[in-house]
Amino acid sequence: MRIARFSIDGNVAFGAVEGEAPPGSTEGLVLDIIKGIPFADFELSGTKVPLSKVRLLPPVLPSKVVAIGRNYAEHVAELGNELPGPSEPPVAFLKPSTSVTGPGAAIEYPSFSQELHHEAELAVVIGRMCREVPRERVADVILGYTCANDVTARDVQKREKQWSRAKGFDTACPLGPWVETGIDLKRAADLTIQCTVNGEQRQLGRTTDMIRPIEDLIVHISEAMTLLPGDVVLTGTPAGVGPLGVGDEVAVTIEGIGTLTNKVIKRG
User: Fold this and answer.
1) Spatial distance between the Cα atoms of 245 and 202, rounded to a whole number of angstroms
2) 12, 64, 103, 221: which sits with the fewest CB atoms below 10 Å from its CB?
3) What are the pLDDT digits (tens) for 181-193?
4) Would you state the pLDDT for residue 25?
5) Helical H segments across the chain, by residue range
6) Can you give the residue ranges of the Fumarylacetoacetase-like C-terminal domain (predicted)?
7) Comparing C-alpha atoms, which of 243, 251, 246 is closest to residue 108?
8) pLDDT digits over 127-147, tens only?
């Protein structure tokens, strides 16, 4: 099931996306409005609205986004970093809830940066409160998957010792267009990730190239902190990251999920 969060006539609701459409298009898609929330038992209301008549919002409002860096070998190499050794823990950092924005929303170019980069990523959406999750129970705590763009002020990341400002500014975490619940861990480990800027392909990779699989990431993160329903884990980006400028349209497409599109504007 594809679960979207949307706004219509000033009201916000969740809905199940039905129908098929070309990549990046909403033509022919409808939303069956959900009674309740997707993190508990819910029913479909049978009340349907065309997706073209609503405004899609971030599919979840996470209390936190936990992101993983340097999880694809070619991306590690392109930034001139050393490949983490087998005994080294994953590089984890937080993006605040205020960095989250939705499909079609603007990415605001921060005034303190002159080098903004895209980073296409598979995002894991947590479905229940959990802590110290054993590896064999990871699937039980996942609601589904969505597309993410770990937008990064690369120049700020290079000159500051921690990444909070470089990756945590407002609008630095586009998510969407919806959560796909019909993907299991085996399939999630073999999906194509693509990023285009103004229609030109920049990134093309597969989740099979992750250095550490999703199970290891959830175990590692949940050892330290409680994950809440709607929290998001970003799993790293493949090679090909590059610059974004004001006016650019950036699209992240993940096989079996959909396309997340955003336009870069000047922060004003």
Assistant:
1) 14
2) 12
3) 999 999 999 999 9
4) 74
5) 73-78, 154-159, 164-168, 185-188, 214-224
6) 64-264
7) 246
8) 999 999 999 999 999 999 999
95 has pLDDT over 90: yes
H-only helix segments in 39-131 = 73-78
Question: Residue 172 forms beta bridges with which residues?
Answer: none
For residue 72, name the pLDDT band (cuts at 50, 70, 90). Answer: very high
- Judge whether 252 and 260 are in contact, CB under 8 Å: yes
The closest of 253, 157, 254 to 262, measured between CA atoms, is 253
Q: Cis omega (within 30 of 0) on the bond before 243?
A: no
Q: Are strands 200-206 and 192-197 parallel, antiparallel or unpaired?
A: antiparallel
CA neighbours within 13 Å on the CB side: how many for 67?
29
Q: Which two tokens stand for residue 100?
A: 């989250």
> Are 207 and 179 spatial neighbours (Cβ–Cβ below 8 Å)?
no
- The pair of structure tokens assigned to 171 is 């609008």
Given a cut of 80, whether residue 86 has pLDDT beyond it is no
Closest to 174 in 3D by CA, of 102, 252, 247: 102
Find, among 76, 80, 73, 60, the residue nearest to 6 by Cα: 60
Query: What is the set of domains in the chain, with CATH numbers?
Result: 2-56 (2.30.30.370), 65-266 (3.90.850.10)
Radius of gyration of the chain (CA): 18
pLDDT cut 90: percent of the chain above it = 89
Sign of the Cα torsion 120, 122, 127, 130 reads negative
Closest residue by Cα to residue 95 from 179, 173, 175 = 173
What are 45's two structure tokens?
């209301």
